[in-house]
Amino acid sequence: MAQTKWKNHGTHPRTASHRDQERHARNVRDVMKRGTELYEKFAGFVTDMDLIGDSLRKTDKHYEEAMKKLSEGRGNLVRQVQMLKELGIRTNKSIPKHLLDRADVDQTELALAAEADPADDGN
């Protein structure tokens, strides 16, 4: 009678337990696989971010070096082109104020320098 009872209810308790164990083992394998894939993708992302950071730092260094040439020192490019404008070249454009400030261009000084230029022979 005991055998008939299990047949009528569908599955033997050992079979149900075995199925639960298999499902659990499959879930563990899926979690491990997904975890491995996630970890590897994250490690690749971190490596990419490090490379981007290095590139940004190099770019910033080159930018600062170029800006020094553009706007620092007595013969800086901003000062020289602004002097040309003060000498009378015709243009509708202006150098941005922040570059003039960075280059320490004094409009009054440029006007005086243009008037007192010894290379100017009056022609």
Structural features:
single chain, 123 residues, 0% strand, rod-shaped, mainly alpha
What is the rounded distance between the termini?
128 Å
Mean of residue pLDDT values: 83
What is the tally of beta strands? 0
Strand coverage percent: under 5%
| Principal-axis shape | rod-shaped
Note poorly predicted spans. none
- The radius of gyration computed from the alpha-carbon positions, rounded to a whole number of angstroms, is 39 Å
> In terms of structural class, how would the helical and strand content be classed?
mainly alpha
The secondary-structure element order is HHHHH
Instruction: Figure out the total of helices.
Output: 5
Helix content: over 70%
Biggest sheet, in brief? none
Structure, described:
This protein is mostly helical and 123 residues long. It is 75% helix and 0% strand. It has five helices and no strands. Helix 3 (77-86) packs across helix 5 (107-115). The longest helix has 59 residues, at 13-71. It is rod-shaped and about 100 Å long.
